[in-house]
Task: structure prediction
Amino acid sequence: MPRMTVNGRPLQFDLDPDTPLLWALRDAANLTGTKYGCGKGDCSACMVLVDGEALRSCLITIEEAEGRFITTIEGLSRDRGHPVQQALVAEQAIQCGFCTPGIAIAAASLIAKNADPSEDEIKAAVPNLCQCGVYPRLVKAIQRAGRVARGLETISAAPAPGISTGDAAKSVPALRDLQPDEE
Ligand code: FES
Ligand code: FES
Result:
């Protein structure tokens, strides 16, 4: 029964040791922010930090994760205040959002090591597939996150967790007309 630390908490999975970490996180620990895209290492939607390194959780078994420190998107910050999260929102570098947790994890790992990455360094460190084409905005966002991490810039925090979807949508012009209280 492999044990590890997930988002700062000790966890023991009563599962087959060959279970992919992705399944354990999503189905046993209910940490569904980590996404299942391809299940075979191609898309990076499932990236989590393992001892600070962004790895594809579909390719790691829980036995291989034994004793390691795992951070999922839920644990990246308490208040969505990680520079990468702030910058992704500020630069509108999110469209479908499905691939975004993996992108945020890959970018956070990069920024922790290199807070002033070039476009080529970002492309190498963030291999995540995103079919909607936010790559140019991603580069801008990750470089902006680096400036925030270096203390050169601040970004207003994204809405705090717990905000109602209705309240959050009120600040999005395209969604305002869809609010039930305004219909
Ligand atoms: S689900 Fe892991 S790389 Fe696609
Ligand atoms: S934001 Fe998900 S495919 Fe681009």
